[in-house]
From TrEMBL:
Domain PapC-like C-terminal: 690-744
Organism: Escherichia coli
Keywords from the UniProt entry: Cell outer membrane, Fimbrium biogenesis, Membrane, Signal, Transmembrane, Transmembrane beta strand, Transport
Origin organism lineage: Bacteria, Pseudomonadati, Pseudomonadota, Gammaproteobacteria, Enterobacterales
Protein name as annotated: Outer membrane usher protein
PANTHER family referenced in this protein's UniProt entry, alphabetically: OUTER MEMBRANE USHER PROTEIN, OUTER MEMBRANE USHER PROTEIN YFCU-RELATED
Keyword RNA-binding: no
Composition skew (Polar residues), residue ranges: 782-801
Length: 801
């Protein structure tokens, strides 16, 4: 809507409603200072310097240009909190089921196993209520005597493993959790408890801000291109409007020296360097991450242990390069406190050090001792990128714990007098190293850990992998990989070597060789892998194991209703087996529901409505899903707080369907059930000529709409129009100059050949149609290079590239 200026009758202004302004994503301080007019329904003009409002009649669009300095941070796949969508209320039930049958050749034993786990729950506004379950059924029978029940054993169990609820607190960038939870801490070792917590949710931060990263700020005197590079390689490039800018999404994985180049449209160029490093222990300057919790510890059987506890932790970016962090955890007999500091050492990497002290008062004899026990644990962490070698080494540990140091879990075990103490940590070293020699097609990866204990022998685990990608004659993209490994657990050691080779056979298939050598048994296999389509692939392997032949096959299909994996194995003289795995779920809301595949139990999902049209293919992440008989489909495993996009595959629409809107977007909070509706019409398609009573034609660009105000065609020269989604006897209106001008009626029945050209009289209307029938002017918001239309957004606005 537009209104005339009170001071100058020659000026008109667009009425920017509070809902539209809220969707712009203005910074909180700026949004609170805005003034309104026309009974607080329209934004008072002239308050934001540099903001421009233009009307584009040719596109029925309202264009808004907003200086970046006024806006909250956004990126190509992330929106500020003002655009987050809590979704709609509804019920969910997700599951993962596995079934396997096995016949042992020696002894004739048959075994059958069915196991499953899942989540059921409900969404009510911003609240998420969940319950997790798990179940197992096992049956084993010896075939020596099928009638002898003593040769048959059966076991089964069903458990509700966790009851919990949570909701997002966007204003605090935090998450409130209630019920049964696991303590996920950056400082203390975790344990199960029932209670409540409020914690900073890193998921709410932009993807590249989840950790330490530098700010790059400056001032553009005109519209400018900002380029951030490292050793000649462009890491980030964007357009900014005139005015101050601040770039915060360089990424916590980027370190070393960054080169910044600002190219103005007026020809001026600014260049400067920024030196930084990144690691998990460091926090951005001025940023605080925190977690507070309280409750009672409990075991897997929902039985509480110990007394009431409370705790908290925080990390504060004191100054650029320095971070302080610490925390405390305590109940009546156990207290633990930690303090640490992290430092960005620029070209020398990043370093963090912390110390944790525990105090325990045991009032009975136990394997841990009796009385008061005090101990300390010291931890050093280091990270460094070697830019010149295109590699990264992380030394995330040295950790030393004194003999009397105890975690909360160890204290809970000690409170049970019949528990013996095992695995009392002393020292731990970990090294992760990854290097890629791109020119040579070589990559090397090492993961190494060494642990010593006060009460048992040391353990050493490692995984070393060497990969080489190469071409041989006309065969390209061959690969060979060698992996050496060693793992120790509970006095058992598994070590060996694995060799893998892959040769492309076609665009969608490869021939592979896999050899395993080490403890256990040696085996060699030749395999064939083929991807049938985006949803289905299979692999067949034949080979030998300990001089016995083996054959196995695997098929995976990402279906609309579930993800299905099938497997079959035969090992000569040993066993034969078959298995099936299903992963899926059901979502039900007041708008409808659907069965669907899912991998993230109880996670975020998007309910798609295709206007009641069945078999409409919708793509988002992974293989497409198809709408059910009610025109509904669910896209599961949606990323929390990301700008997710779903779109119709126009090339595979049903013959009688046409999509007038094929793309929707949603930025959903964790666990939300989003809801988006596509504009899809169903019916036949035809070529027609529209003619007015006086023999003339509707003007070029006139719109043909059905009773539901869906556009079914646009008039071309001399009244020619391609109509989609039409039905016999249907009445349609033709719009131009902002109103409905005439009406057409389709014949009943429709002719057999609709593409020979229908001649449709268009009876003119003498009055203007109501405003509700006029084509809507869609506001388009431009932020840098971004355009946003309200029809694609959860709050009547969203961003599109």
């Amino acid at each position: 809507n537009w209104y005339v200026s009170e001071n100058d009758p020659t000026k008109t202004y667009a009425c920017l409603t509070p809902e539209l302004v809220a969707a712009l994503g203005l910074k909180e301080g700026i949004a609170k200072s805005l003034q309104w007019t026309h009974n607080d329904e329209c934004l008072k003009p002239g308050q934001l310097d540099g903001m421009e409002v233009e009307n584009d009649l040719s596109q029925s669009a309202l264009l808004l240009t907003v200086p970046q300095a006024y806006l909250e941070y956004t990126s190509s796949d992330w929106d500020p909190p003002s655009r987050w969508d809590d979704g709609i209320s509804g019920l969910i039930a997700d599951y993962s089921l596995n079934a396997q049958t096995r016949h042992q050749e020696q002894g004739g034993e048959d075994s059958h196993d069915i196991s499953g786990n899942g989540t059921v729950g409900a969404n009510l506004g911003a609240w998420r209520f969940r319950a997790d379950w798990q179940s197992d059924y096992q049956h084993t029978r010896s075939n020596d005597d099928e009638d002898d029940s003593s040769n048959s054993t059966t076991s089964k169990n069903w458990d509700w493993s966790r009851y919990y609820a949570w909701r997002a607190l966007p204003s605090l960038k935090a998450k409130l959790s209630l019920g049964e939870d696991y303590l996920n801490s950056d400082i203390f070792d975790g344990f199960n408890y029932i209670g409540s917590s409020v914690s900073t949710d890193d998921q709410m931060l932009p993807p590249n801000l989840r950790g330490y990263a530098p700010d790059v700020s400056g001032v553009a005197h005109s519209s400018a291109k900002v380029t951030i590079s490292q050793m000649g390689r462009v890491l980030y490039e964007t357009q900014v409007p005139a005015g101050p800018f601040r770039i915060q999404d360089i990424g916590d994985s980027v370190s070393g020296t960054l080169h910044v180049r600002v190219e103005e449209q007026n020809g001026q160029v600014q260049e400067y360097d920024v030196t930084t490093a990144s690691m998990p222990f460091l926090t951005r300057q001025g940023q605080v991450r925190y977690k507070v919790m309280m409750g009672r510890p409990e075991d897997w059987n929902h039985k509480t242990e110990g007394g009431f506890f409370s705790g908290g932790e925080a990390s504060w970016g004191v100054a650029d390069g320095w971070s302080l962090y610490g925390g405390a955890l305590a109940d009546e007999h156990y207290q633990s406190a930690a303090m640490g500091v992290g430092r960005d050492l620029a070209q020398f990497g990043a370093l963090a050090f912390d110390v944790t002290h525990s105090h325990v008062n045991l009032d009975h004899d136990s394997a841990y001792g009796k009385g008061k026990l005090d101990g300390n644990s010291f931890r050093v962490s280091y990270a460094k990128d070697f830019d010149e070698l295109n590699s990264r080494v992380t030394f995330a540990g040295y950790r030393f714990s004194e003999k009397n140091f105890m975690t909360m879990s160890e204290y809970l075990d000690a409170s049970q007098s019949d528990m013996a103490r095992t695995g009392n940590d002393k020292e731990m070293y970990t090294i992760t190293y990854n290097q890629n020699f791109a020119a040579a097609g070589v990559s090397v990866y090492l993961n190494y850990s060494h642990r010593t204990y006060w009460d048992r022998p040391e353990q050493t685990n490692y995984n070393l992998m060497f990969s080489h990608y190469f071409n041989m004659g006309s065969i390209r993209n061959m690969s060979i990989s060698v992996t050496g490994y060693r793992y120790e657990y509970d006095d058992n050691t598994d070590k060996g070597m694995y060799l893998s080779m892959s040769i492309p056979w076609s665009d969608s298939s490869t021939v592979t060789y896999n050899g395993s050598y080490g403890s256990g048994s040696d085996s060699s296999q030749v395999g064939y892998f083929n991807r049938i389509d985006d949803a289905t692939h299979y692999q067949i392997n034949v080979g030998t194991s300990e001089q016995h032949g083996s054959v196995d096959g695997y098929l995976s299909h990402d279906g609309t209703l579930a993800k299905v994996d099938l497997s079959a194995n035969y090992h000569e003289g040993e066993y034969r087996s078959a298995g099936i795995a299903l992963q899926g779920g059901a979502t039900l809301t007041a708008h409808g529901g659907a069965l669907h595949r899912t991998q993230n139990m109880g996670g975020t999902r998007l309910l798609i409505d295709a206007d009641g049209i069945a078999n409409v293919p919708v793509e988002s992440n992974g293989a497409p899903v198809y709408t059910n008989m009610f025109g509904k489909a669910v896209v599961a495993d949606i990323n929390n707080y990301y700008r997710n996009q779903a779109y119709i595959d126009l090339n595979n629409l049903p013959e009688d369907a046409e999509a007038t809107q094929s793309v929707v977007q949603a930025t959903l909070t964790e666990g939300a059930i989003g809801y988006r509706k596509f504009k899809v019409i169903s019916g036949q398609k035809a070529m027609a000529v529209l003619r007015l009573r006086d023999g003339s034609y509707p003007p070029f660009g006139a719109e043909v709409k059905n009773d539901e105000q869906q556009q079914v065609g646009i008039v071309d020269d001399e009244g020619n129009v391609y109509l989609a989604g039409i039905n016999a006897g249907e009445h349609m209106m033709v719009f131009w100059e902002g109103s409905a001008q005439c009406e057409i009626v389709l014949p009943k029945p429709l002719p057999a050949d609709l593409f020979r050209g229908l001649l449709l009289p268009c009876e003119q209307k003498g009055t203007t149609a109501p405003d509700s029938l006029a084509p809507e002017i869609k506001p388009v918001i431009q932020d840098q290079t971004r355009q946003v239309t309200p029809s694609e957004a959860p709050t009547s606005i969203s961003a599109t590239q």
